[in-house]
Amino acid sequence: MADMNTMPSVREMQRAYLGKDASYDGIFFLGVRTTGIFCRPSCPARKPLPKNVAYFSNVREALFAGYRPCKRCRPLDTNGQPPKWVSAALALAGSTSEKIKDSELRRSGIDPFRIRRYFRKHYGMTFQAYCRSQRMGTALDQLRRGTGLDDVALGNGFE
After folding, report:
1. Strand pairing of 29-32 and 68-69?
2. Where are the alpha helices (DSSP H) in the chain?
3. Residue 98 contacts by C-beta under 8 Å, 6 or more apart in sequence?
4. What is the pTM assigned to this prediction?
């Protein structure tokens, strides 16, 4: 979870997300514990109860905590839609539970070095770290639902 000393107060963050204040976008992100989704403060989705909210200072923290990006406010997009080649990489990541190799990226027309630089610059992590955090989030969700540990590990590309 985020260091609360570098973010606005909890009361201010609550006021921002309840008011859908876009001026706080990028300053903090909120995770909804009951759904496992994280959003921008300005998200148009129905607002969760304050007791079900976790706060993060960046998308990396939210992803590593096992939260998935909201499909309405798209917190991974920077100032609108990402470039088409980034969308293609995200689609590739969402279509497999296995680690994506550089050769697979090249076959899809995506330069591995370019996607790595893009993710580091915009999300504070590499593309592989993003994929790994997505797999971890899926695995944690399956474990919470009672799926066996071996099935979860093997089904999500872990050995």
Report:
1. unpaired
2. 10-18, 59-64, 84-94, 102-107, 112-123, 127-144, 149-155
3. 157
4. 0.57
* Domain boundaries, position 58: 10-69
Backbone phi, psi, residue 69, to 5° = -70, 145
Whole-number Å distance between alpha carbons of 157 and 159: 7
Give the pairing of strands 37-39 and 68-69: parallel
Active site residues: 39, 43, 70, 73
Rounded CA gap, 143 and 159, in Å? 16
Q: How many CB atoms lie within 10 A of CB 11?
A: 9
* CATH number of the domain to which 35 belongs: 3.40.10.10
User: Based on the domain organization, do 58 and 101 belong to the same domain?
Assistant: no
Which residue type sits at 5? N
Within a domain: 141: yes
Residues 45 and 104 both lie in one domain = no
Residues 96 and 62 in one domain: no
Question: pLDDT tens-digit profile of 16-69?
Answer: 899 988 878 888 999 999 999 999 999 999 999 999 999 998 888 999 999 999
* Number of domains making up the chain: 2
